[in-house]
């Protein structure tokens, strides 16, 4: 295997990963809980961009339920963002022709 060729591919991969991370910052994913009573919108990088709560949950005696639903919706959105990132990364790496299991130094 040509080491210089591999290093060139690694540099190209690093540049493409930088572009991918920039594009993911502009993507938004939405997670929900409680059959849509709570929704959380995150950027592709995991920053919370929005939170929507159905007014029926705004009851003093249901605060714990609301807190749980917010956490569940956030977890749902975060899982979707991570899955999207993993998919895009896999697509990027499959085009590089690197050997199976090869790990780059970045």
Automatic annotation (TrEMBL):
Signal peptide: none annotated. Keywords: Cytoplasm, DNA-binding. It is found in: Cytoplasm, Nucleoid. The keyword DNA-binding applies. GO terms for molecular function: DNA binding. The keyword 4Fe-4S does not apply. Belongs to the YbaB/EbfC family. This is Nucleoid-associated protein APZ00_06310. It comes from Pannonibacter phragmitetus.
